[in-house]
Amino acid sequence: MAKTRIALYxxxxxxxxxxxxxxxxxxxxxxxxxxxxxASNPAKAPMFSHKERVAIVRRExxxxxxxxxxxxxxQAFDQLLIEFAEKVGAGMIVRGLRAVSDFEYEFxxxxxxxxxxAEIETVFLMADPRHQAIASRLVKEIAMLGGDxxxxxxxxxxxxxxxxxxxxxxxx
Length: 172
Known about the structure:
There is one protein chain. By secondary structure, the chain is an alpha/beta fold. It contains six helices and five strands; from the N terminus they run E-H-E-H-E-H-E-H-E-H-H. It is globular, with a radius of gyration of 16 Å. The chain has one domain: HUPs (Rossmann fold, 3-Layer(aba) Sandwich), CATH 3.40.50.620.
């Protein structure tokens, strides 16, 4: 019997962008089960709570599983990435690359993760050219300044962003 190929796609997903969804759409074609790990990472000062981000990712990725593609599970985590990968039984970590600057950071991460567990491979998927410029940080900045983020996120996430920015604006 063939071994189940389990992959972990980690990130903060604050907010979930079309670039993230593109990586998920392609990753589910390569594995049997994809776990999307939503990291807490308070250092990034997330706009959405950990619980909200998990709910958003679950909602937005639900239509991407099945029909011959991998099943998807979304889980929160707040531990070392490699420890979480071991915990969920992932044999690979999926990462998206947009630019050379991403590669330099990811190259360092792969080296460290290999030292921690050489059995878990990291697989890089290049961002679709339409999504290469999309960065969550920039999407948040555009939203905070009242710009239109609809070409960077799903309609649901764009709506949530606008609402959150209005809430934050009222508090100031």
